[in-house]
């Protein structure tokens, strides 16, 4: 009987606590993995779009396995990245997030890829996470550098600058940044920065998320509070159930 009573009190309490803490992980970004497009591979804003995002630069969507094989058509012709499929054993691959990824030229006609994130609380911190890498466009050769400039509302941060060898690929890296919300909705933007100017240093992007930072002390405290109330009630019930 005591075992059943314990289960009926503590198990629901644990569920409420876990649900409360889990609420902090809701991703506020639309299409952060870039899987939803209007017409597959291509240049954003020219012959395809990523749902939820806008872009004004020389920025592409590549489906898995296409960047160094079939490529994508852009405003000045087809675009390819150096990789095993077109002659460079540099290890180019899709991100750990999987599926499509963005490739933005930081040295030719750079422009941000952006979206407005809503549902924010003014002044609260938010963690932006994403996968990124440095790559290069075929057939140009030569060493380059790649970097992302990330803006959220009125604040801007930068990833480290990565040095990339000729026909190279840097490998994927995971980056997190914390920003305070200016308003209940803020513009999130990524601008590729690369050198040398006029060469095709491409910055890759995938798996973008905007979350309340974890662990959240407020939510964890709420979860612990729920469990404490449950244990207190159980102790009270056990005292009342003891024979006189």
Could you give the count of β-strands? 14
Question: With helices defined by DSSP (H or I, 4 residues minimum), what is the helix count?
Answer: 2
How many structural domains in the coordinates? 2
Overall structural class, as computed from helix and strand content, comes to: alpha+beta
- Could you list the spans in which at least 5 consecutive residues all have pLDDT below 50? 1-24, 216-231
Would you kindly provide a written description of the structure presented here, covering whatever features stand out?
The protein contains two helices and 14 strands. Strands 1, 3, 4, 5, 6, 8, 12 and 14 form an eight-stranded antiparallel beta sheet that branches. Strands 2, 7, 9, 10, 11 and 13 form a six-stranded antiparallel beta sheet that branches. Helix 1 runs antiparallel to helix 2 (217-241). It is α+β, with helices and mostly antiparallel strands. Helices cover 19% and strands 35% of the residues.
Can you give keywords for this protein?
single chain, 244 residues, alpha+beta, Jelly Rolls, 2 domains, eight-stranded antiparallel β-sheet, six-stranded antiparallel β-sheet, 2 helices, disordered N terminus
Furnish the topology, listing elements before pairings:
Blueprint: H1 2-22, E1 42-43, E2 54-55, E3 59-62, E4 72-74, E5 77-81, E6 101-105, E7 113-117, E8 125-138, E9 144-152, E10 155-158, E11 162-164, E12 173-180, E13 186-195, E14 201-211, H2 217-241
Antiparallel strand pairs: 1-3, 2-7, 3-6, 4-5, 5-8, 6-14, 7-13, 8-12, 8-14, 9-10, 9-11, 9-13
Helix pairs in contact: 1-2
């Amino acid at each position: 009987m005591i075992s059943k009573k314990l289960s009926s009190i503590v198990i629901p309490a644990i569920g409420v606590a876990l649900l409360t803490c889990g609420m902090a992980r809701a991703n506020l970004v639309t299409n952060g993995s870039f899987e939803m497009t209007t017409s597959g591979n291509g240049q954003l804003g020219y012959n395809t779009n990523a749902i939820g995002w806008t872009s004004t630069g020389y920025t592409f969507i590549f489906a898995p396995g296409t960047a160094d094989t079939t490529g994508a058509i852009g405003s000045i012709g087809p675009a390819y990245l150096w990789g095993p499929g077109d002659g460079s054993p540099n290890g180019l691959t899709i991100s750990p997030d999987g599926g499509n990824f963005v490739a933005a030229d930081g040295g030719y006609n750079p422009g941000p890829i952006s979206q407005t994130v809503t549902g924010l609380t003014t002044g609260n911190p938010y963690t932006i996470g994403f996968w990124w890498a440095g790559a290069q466009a075929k057939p140009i050769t030569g060493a380059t550098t790649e970097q992302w400039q990330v803006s959220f509302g009125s604040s801007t941060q930068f990833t480290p600058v990565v040095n990339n060898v000729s026909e190279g690929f840097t490998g994927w890296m995971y980056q997190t940044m914390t920003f305070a919300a200016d308003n209940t909705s803020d513009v999130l933007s990524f601008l590729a920065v690369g050198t040398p100017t006029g060469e095709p240093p491409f910055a890759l992007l995938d798996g973008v998320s905007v979350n309340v930072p974890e662990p959240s002390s407020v939510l964890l405290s709420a979860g612990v509070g729920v469990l404490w109330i449950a244990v207190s009630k159980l102790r009270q019930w056990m005292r009342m159930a003891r024979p006189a």
